[in-house]
Write a structure and sequence with these properties.
CATH class of the largest domain: Mainly Beta
Strand order of the largest sheet: 1-56-55-54
Low-confidence stretches: none
Structural class: mainly beta
Distance between the termini: 8 Å
CATH topology of the largest domain: Methylamine Dehydrogenase, Chain H
CATH superfamily of the largest domain: YVTN repeat-like/Quinoprotein amine dehydrogenase
Length: 592
């Protein structure tokens, strides 16, 4: 029985403070495409829980754009590579790959014939290039700038034109094809962050760190006017702009944490959306596709807007950093935490996430454990937080950061990074006398198992706040990294840093099977199914594997389930749910 992907709950776009992010849409206006880690994510705007990913890049991705035909996507990365790949078929076959610049690609533009591509960025020998999408032949020269080019745009109709904008406070206007520099535009007084042609191609706009938006003639490149010069404009850098489909309005988003709608013909401000008060609410990207208007916060949240509304209609949240811990609670909800400290509660049926209030104040979350409807989270601020619903119920200081957690009977057992073991009951913390370099813990009722760096697992019985040793398991040759009791407590699965998993009996430490050995790197997580026969593991090699005690020779491997490593996996009902370093949550179902 093989497992296939049932749902993919995508990570949020990657953001960097002070840099614009490119959100682009497909020709149908129903999907948005963006960069996240080493993946390119294509996400539905009608149902944001629906998405798919392209994982062909080997360096962190930076930008992606659909061709006007909709058949291809051109995506760039931090190494300077541009890959053109099939966006229609599920295989996403690579059409071509080029290296137009020797550095980070910041923006990509297609011409109206879906034949020519302009790629710009922070190159060492040049800041951009224009080439054909299939052969890579040069069809223009990008020049006139002395610093990184932040954005580019190409006129879709003949005569072809293009514009680039840069940190050198200038924009360069090009005639094509082939594309040659025609005019240098010097109207901005700071970094120029974005340039966008109107869908009609009659005009283009540029937006900059000076908070100004300029309108130019799309064919001649001549300045028409500063948009909204007499209105109350942005008080911070404008990071991105987007035209309405009918070319009548422009949306601008800014570091002042606002989104503004401009009527171009009337030259007036027609709407402002206040996004929040904190730096995480700075707006760094936007897109306008049909009836869908989306703005990107520095936190990665995608806000769905409506022209004239004073607040977002919906905010799509999740993770934009690697997920470091996860735990499922009674009822099927999943809690995930990333190394930026964000904790999300997932409704797996709806595919939506809610940010847990107060959980992100402690820094990166190192470990998580669940019991009933309660989740315990261990953060780098040396505190143990208990979460119920979408808020933190209480926090208990541990004195050191915990690397592993487990609920045992009426307490939480925490393995601390200073090689100590703590027992937490209510707000009381007791340090237990355990010798050795402890690494991970699991518990079931009063039975507790602790894995050590010297390759062995020790089982204990918890009695009166003391751990009484029972049996020891010495079946590994590497550091113990993951432990899990079966639901009835009769078996213990132990994983190590080499990828080996051993199943042992808890009464006498006898070996049940040593044939769970398909991982090639550190095992991060093991979880049993309710039937007591199957278990699922997640490892640094990126694989998620479903095992069986009764038929250990038959394993079901989901290869490369998560780029950068699979961090956690568990059974939720009949499905397997996994999380990883790519920031995604994936649901796997048994294939029919």
């Amino acid at each position: 029985m093989a497992f296939e992907q049932k749902n993919y709950f995508a990570p949020l776009p990657a953001t960097t403070r002070g840099q614009p992010v490119r959100l682009t849409v497909d020709p149908t206006g129903t999907k948005v495409v963006y960069a996240s880690g080493k993946s390119i994510v294509v996400r539905s705007l009608e149902d944001p829980s629906q998405a798919w990913e392209y994982t062909g890049h080997t360096a962190p991705t930076t930008v992606a754009r659909f061709s006007p035909s909709g058949y291809y996507v051109a995506s760039g990365d931090s190494s300077g590579k541009v890959r053109i790949w099939d966006a229609v078929n599920d295989e996403h076959i690579l059409k071509s790959e080029f290296q137009p610049i020797a550095g980070r690609v910041t923006d990509i533009a297609w011409d109206g014939e879906s034949k020519r591509i302009m790629a710009v960025g922070d190159g060492k020998g040049g800041f951009g290039h224009v080439f054909t999408f299939d052969s890579g032949n040069s069809v223009g020269t990008v020049m006139g700038h002395s610093k990184v080019i932040n954005a580019c745009a190409m006129r879709q109709q003949r005569p072809f034109r293009a514009v680039t904008c840069s940190d050198d406070s200038t924009c360069v206007f090009y005639h094509g094809a082939p594309y040659k520099m025609a005019t240098v535009l010097r109207d901005h007084t700071g970094f120029v962050q974005d340039a966008q042609y109107a869908p009609s191609d009659e005009y283009f706009v540029t937006a900059g760190a000076d908070g100004k938006l300029f309108l130019y003639d799309g064919k001649s490149g001549e300045l028409v006017r500063q948009v909204g010069a007499q209105a109350q404009g942005h008080t911070g850098s404008i990071y991105a702009a987007a035209w309405s489909p009918d070319s009548s309005h422009v949306l601008t988003v800014s570091g002042d944490r606002t989104c503004k709608f401009w009527d171009i013909a009337a030259d007036k401000l027609v709407g402002t959306v206040e996004m929040g008060a904190g730096p995480e609410h700075m707006q760094v990207g936007c897109a306008w596709a049909g009836d869908h208007i989306v703005s990107l916060s520095l936190s990665g949240d995608l806000s769905l807007l409506r022209c004239g509304a004073a607040a977002p209609e919906r905010v799509v949240t999740g993770h934009q950093k690697s997920i470091t811990a996860a735990a499922a609670v009674t009822g099927g909800a999943l809690y995930t935490a990333s190394y930026d400290g964000r904790v999300c509660a997932w409704d797996l049926d709806a595919g939506t996430a809610s940010v847990v209030v107060g959980a992100g104040s402690g820094g990166a979350v190192e470990a998580a454990a669940a019991h009933g409807a309660t989740v315990a989270l261990a953060s780098q601020d040396n505190a143990l937080r208990f979460v119920a619903g979408e808020s933190v119920a209480r926090a208990v200081p541990l004195g050191a950061a915990a690397r592993s957690l487990a609920f045992a009977d009426d307490a939480v057992v925490a393995v601390l990074q200073d090689d100590a073991v703590a027992l937490v009951r209510g707000s009381n913390v007791e340090r237990l006398a355990i010798s050795g370099a402890v690494r991970t813990v699991a518990a079931r009722g009063t039975a507790v198992a602790i894995g050590f760096a010297d390759f062995h697992v020790q089982l204990y019985n918890l009695r009166n706040s003391q751990l009484e040793p029972t049996v020891s398991i010495a079946a590994h040759s590497r550091e113990i990294t993951a432990l899990a009791f079966s639901d009835d407590g009769t078996m213990l699965a132990s994983g190590d840093a080499g990828g080996k998993i051993v199943v042992s009996r808890t009464d006498d430490a006898s070996t049940v099977t040593t044939r769970w050995g398909a991982h090639t790197a550190r095992v991060y997580s093991i979880a049993w199914a309710a039937d007591g026969d199957r278990a699922v593991s997640a490892a640094l090699d990126g694989h998620v594997i479903v095992w069986s005690v009764s038929t250990p020779q038959h394993k079901h491997i989901v290869r490369n389930a998560h780029l950068g490593g699979a961090v956690a996996a568990c059974f939720v009902g009949a499905h397997v749910v996994s999380t990883g370093a790519d920031g995604a949550v994936k649901v796997w179902a048994a294939a029919a």
